[in-house]
Amino acid sequence: MKTARLILIALVTLIVPACLHAQKPGSHILGFMTDFDVKDDAIGICKAVMTSVDPAVKIIDITHQSTPYDIAEGARFLAGSAPYFPADAVFVVVIDPTVGSSRKAIIAKSARGQYFVLPDNGLITLLDQQPGNKIVAAREITEPAWMIGSKLSSTFHGRDIFSPAGAHLTRGENWINAGPALDVAKLVRLDIPMPTLGTSGIRTTVLGLDGPFGNLILNLPSDLFAKLGYTIGDTVSATIDNKPYKLPFVKTFSDVPVGSPLFYIDSRGRLAASINQRSFADQYHVTPGMKVLILPKP
User: What is the residue range of 143's domain?
Assistant: First the structure.
C-alpha cells in the first residue's frame, strides 16, 4: 500500500504541472485585414503561414483593399468590424507603411478579450475609444518561436511576424510567451480629435468616406448627435470646411429624391452625409480630416 501511495503521489506530481501548463483550447477565429490587395500572392502566403501554425484556424477576411498606407482608414475599419466578432477572436491587421523600421510589432488585448496583432502605428486609435474594446494590455512580439523563423525579411512582416503570431493565439497559446509587456498608455495613437459638444453645437471631423459611394462618415456617434435635439424629418444646419449646409435628417437615402443631399445615421451608428445615388465627396469636394460643425436645433 505504501508503495502504491508513493507511485500515486509521483504521478500526481508529474501530471498536475503538465495540466497547468497545457495549451488552452483556441478560438480559431481570425479576422484578417491588410492594404495588400489581392493582385499577387501576398494574401495567400499569409494564410498559408497561419494554417501551418494552426490547421484549424478560421480566417475571416475583413478587407484587403484598405487604401494603401492609410492607417486612419484601417483604424476605422477595425473599430467597425471588431464588435461583430466573438469575444475571444484574434485579429491580424497589416497596414504598415513603416515596415522594417523601429516601430514595434505588438499584440494588444481589449477589455472584451479580443487580441489584435498589428504594428504599433495607431491602428488601435478608434478601437480604443470604444468602451467595450478599450485596450487594457499589450505585448511586443520578440520571441522567434512566434515568428516564421530566423530568416525575417525587412519588408514582409505580414508573413514573417503578424501571421504566425496571430495563429499561435488562435490555437490557444499563452500570449505572455510572445514577448515583454508594454505600457498601454505609450502605444501610438493617431491624432483624431474627439467630437466636442458646446454652446455653438458639436465640433468634429470627417472621419472617412464610405467605400466607392462618396458618403461622408463623421466622427460623431448618434447618441451625442441626439443631444442637439434633432429628430427624423428635421433640417440640420452644419458647416463642413467652413461652408454652410442645410440638409434633411432622414432614415435612408431613398427618403429624398435622387441627386438630393441628406444626413442619416450610418450602419456603424455615426452621423453621415450623402447624396442619394451620387457622391457627396465628389460634388462638394470634401475630404477626410475636414472640420465639421453641427449647429443646435433652433
Answer: 23-186
